[in-house]
Amino acid sequence: MNKLLEQINSPDDISALSVERLKLLAEEIRELILASVSRTGGHLASNLGVVELTVALHYVFDFKKDKLLWDVGHQCYAHKILTGRKDTFADLRHAGGPSGFPNPKESPYDQFIVGHAGTSIPTAIGMALAQQQENKTDKIVALVGDASIVNGVSFEALNNLGLVKRQLLIVLNDNSMAIDATQGAVAKYLSKVRLSQTYEDLRKTTRNILEHMPVIGKGVDDAIEKIKKSIRMALPGSRLFESLNIPYFGPVDGHDIGSLSELFRAMSHLNRPAILHVYTKKGFGFSPAGQDPSKYHSTGPFEMNGDSVETAPSGRTFTIAFGESLSKLAAEDKRIVAITSAMCDGTGLGEFRSKFPDRFYDVGIAESAAVDIAAGLAKEGLRPFVCIYSTFLQRSFDQIFQDISLQNLPVVFCIDRAGLVGSDGPTHHGLMDIGYTRMMPNMVLTAPANELEMKLALEFALRQASPCVIRYPKDVVPVMSDLEMLACAQLFELSGAVAVRKGKNPQIALVSYGSVLGEALKAAETLAKDGIEVDVVNARFAAPVDEKIITLARRGKGIITIEDHYLACGFGSAVLEAAASSSCAHGPKGKRNAKIAVLGAAKEFIEHDLRSSQFRQAGINADRIVEKTKELINE
Amino acid sequence: MNKLLEQINSPDDISALSVERLKLLAEEIRELILASVSRTGGHLASNLGVVELTVALHYVFDFKKDKLLWDVGHQCYAHKILTGRKDTFADLRHAGGPSGFPNPKESPYDQFIVGHAGTSIPTAIGMALAQQQENKTDKIVALVGDASIVNGVSFEALNNLGLVKRQLLIVLNDNSMAIDATQGAVAKYLSKVRLSQTYEDLRKTTRNILEHMPVIGKGVDDAIEKIKKSIRMALPGSRLFESLNIPYFGPVDGHDIGSLSELFRAMSHLNRPAILHVYTKKGFGFSPAGQDPSKYHSTGPFEMNGDSVETAPSGRTFTIAFGESLSKLAAEDKRIVAITSAMCDGTGLGEFRSKFPDRFYDVGIAESAAVDIAAGLAKEGLRPFVCIYSTFLQRSFDQIFQDISLQNLPVVFCIDRAGLVGSDGPTHHGLMDIGYTRMMPNMVLTAPANELEMKLALEFALRQASPCVIRYPKDVVPVMSDLEMLACAQLFELSGAVAVRKGKNPQIALVSYGSVLGEALKAAETLAKDGIEVDVVNARFAAPVDEKIITLARRGKGIITIEDHYLACGFGSAVLEAAASSSCAHGPKGKRNAKIAVLGAAKEFIEHDLRSSQFRQAGINADRIVEKTKELINE
Hints:
The structure is a homodimer. Chain A is an alpha/beta fold. Chain A is built from 26 helices and 20 strands. Chain A has 4 domains: 1-62 and 72-106 and 286-311, Rossmann fold; 116-281, 3-Layer(aba) Sandwich (Rossmann fold); 318-471, Thiamin diphosphate (ThDP)-binding fold, Pyr/PP domains (Rossmann fold, 3-Layer(aba) Sandwich), CATH 3.40.50.970; 497-633, Rossmann fold. In chain A, the strands form 4 sheets. In chain A, strands 10-9-11-12-14-13-18 form a 7-stranded mixed sheet, with helices on both faces. A 5-stranded parallel sheet of chain A has the order 2-3-4-6-5, sandwiched between helices. Chain A has a 5-stranded mixed sheet with strand order 15-17-16-19-20, sandwiched between helices. The relative contact order of chain A is 0.08. At the A-B interface, helix 6, helix 7, helix 8, helix 11 and helix 16 of A face helix 6, helix 7, helix 8, helix 11 and helix 16 of B.
């Protein structure tokens, strides 16, 4: 660790530093981020971009008392380093180490655990309204990026900013580097502003703001008018925000700690909400090609994947299998279009985008609109595949209900990152998608257990005239035996479960949903060694549930369902419902009660860790299945 | 029925009419709407406001082929009358008659079943993209109101409008009548534009647009520039939309059929998306105070409730009980604040707003932001009560997860219109809220069975340090016997169910959740007459489930759960899960399987009808409980 940073154990320790020393500190923080992320994985470029911004914020505000709100939150590394977490930073995203997102359990300097886009402004408004109501004067700062300010909830909040009649500083961290065809109107607007600005303009704007900024409590409104006028002369940037009645300042240089500090200090005294538009550069200060890449590359697998660094996958992932399968299908069926919300690479759509650029839509971080646009596409006869992570698709729950399920449109939801997600932790787990989609009429829920089934599931979905949900995890596809693969080679038929392993006189059947089939097979193997024979059934569908599963549950000691989802409202729950409903109406006398044990995650938030450790913690791995089977048999 | 309208059986029949005749037609349509709505209830003012607009749209476009997309959709009455549904219009919102919302099952002129705000633009974009991809040229028109264009999904769509490179007309139906303190920035902006306009200005703008509008396919881009420039001279209206790169035209008079027709015709040839800003007046042409109110009032109970007409409630509603209880609590506890999204009256908050204006927030149709603002308020120590209908709170699913449940903040969700909602039909039923909230850690789910329990449930929620969900239906509070009320007078304790009726040697317990307790008690009474004794238990909580319920389920013939929710993921499902989980681990040997039958709505969309009829259809009324009990006993 470097010298200056060694002395910084809390933001208090930087208050007496000169701007020159702050610059040095920023460099040391950048080095620590690089060194750690190259080992642990995480978001690199966005964090390197906000180091100066973060240092300046902590230099001016006192976030023991004042409130700093992050949006998405993956850019909080410098903040974590400055707020007493530098010594554990080498364990970033590892069990026991700091998480990759803000978390009040880690530090009083963090307000909300966040990971989804667009929430900093509305939550900041709520805090400001409370302060207003209670006549408190803590300063509130909400950071938001140019990619996440366009999310619906962010705009809804901006539209309600007028409720706040006191200080609330919104820092718009604009790090967009280029005009991209897939960008939306706001991005184009910001790009236009950016292209109109020279570096000298940014300095001029900074001076303008500082010159006209009022002293505390005096003539604030007048001053704002003066600043706005003098800035507007030079700049086109204010129009969008002014039409929404939001005082806008900027753009200014987000890497100039000195100017930023002065600006923050001046703006902290405004008695109304305001936006400061700040330019930063993703990956600022890190040019591995130019400098000494080996220094950062030697510490471990180090691969830039968009904004984030991921250790190289140890095998073929479900995501890759999905992307390739969909591209193949799309070559045969021209009705197929793909939609994603700022997650083209993450959802494996890279190949699809290159091969079918006119049939690929990236709507930015706008999950709700993505689903409604899919509804329109399907209404006109196309076959949209909506590719969004499980946790982010939660943003589209109501659109899936009204605009897909109620209309019975054949949209296919390709839910990546379903289940436990490993190092991203609780904001990113996809533990509710079975529940929030299986309640809806017309929805068919399926989950492939391996790569072969991914292809079959997609083909099945395309044959349907109704909406279909396909879920799969952030994981490698499991390797199975030839015999097992043979079972999985059967075509997908609506609700049809398949037997993958047959025990001799089995008392129990293990019924798994999706990729946890691998765990069930492993458990069956272990049990066989202990002389306990079980069947293993691959349910394939969570809605509708195969009646065969209910029949199995009435045999011998019954069944155990296994899934990578909350137990609440999950696959097992669907099986319980099906058994409870079918039993009274149709069940043979005296056989009303099917014997069903359910394995799924308990209603808890599982912290960042290895996915395998999270499985152990959630009790949905092979060991737990073995244990549960023995419990059932010994009852 | 009047003369001209008699001859109109489809939009084809108006194509040859003169503008003068169209005006007459509009008047006749208005009369029919008034006559019908005064009898059936429904949305009156908004429908009267768009009669001319609707006539002009059908005059110019051919919506057999072209696409007309409504937003929220409650203003589609004139459209329904013009598209072959005038003869059944007297049965509006009644079983067998037209629904109060667009519905493709009723007519090929309807595209989507809608009822939630903000979806017309994104679905229109989807349809336009499909047309673009397939080189089709059907015209697409999306209507959107000034209240719903601010919803997040609508903004996300506007931000993506640039994806569309062909015709797409957005008609912004601006009927805002006054600047209201609770309005957002867009509303203020539109009001400012409105205040700057005289009637003569609107006419001038219309002429300007028509003069410069290009002939088909020729110099469209240039012409748009010319129009924009000539309009901008006179008007401030374009700034917001231009900063989003959306060609904006207007404002123009929305009651001038002749001008509207010319404008629609001209704009239908634009080869890119554009917005036409139209002023309409809610309730246009109807002044019951001035003219002959008796004519409209005599036909039945007729009461203006904001925009909609509701027949007078036949008793005290849960909504009123909630509003009064919350106001009383708020008088004692200053931390209490209330938040709603454009549903102050609908959620019973009128009294709260008058008594505590500084503690009341209406954020407009922005359910997602409402929840995040509540998160901020709670973070700062206040106790927010979020009051939103069950179906609309679906818009906040992800915010409830990340910003409330994950943070474990004590926000209380007061979910009105939970369960079946009667005449509004499938877009408005609240049949999923138990499921979408009970999956989340930290959430406590409770439901009052009557007015007394409403008060107790609110008091309970205020005592909690965690988030709490309280659901109640669009219905009157049930009247119960003194003995029954005595049972309900017990304080709410976390997860604690209460026995409301004790049978002698009962074989079955009926376990109800929320207001369906009334049905359970009625069933018990009927069964007693048949000599069948049952217990009736008021569960009060769906999460956590009372272990006592599981114990009951292991007694005699078991239990029947009853709820006003989809069976999938509902209260009964939670009981099944609890039984399945507790049985293996803790259940006595041989008693693993609790006997649980579940009654809830099947996974279907239940059409508009009386709530009582919908209950019968869903099979969750007293009759069905009796039947199910006998089935269980005879097994």
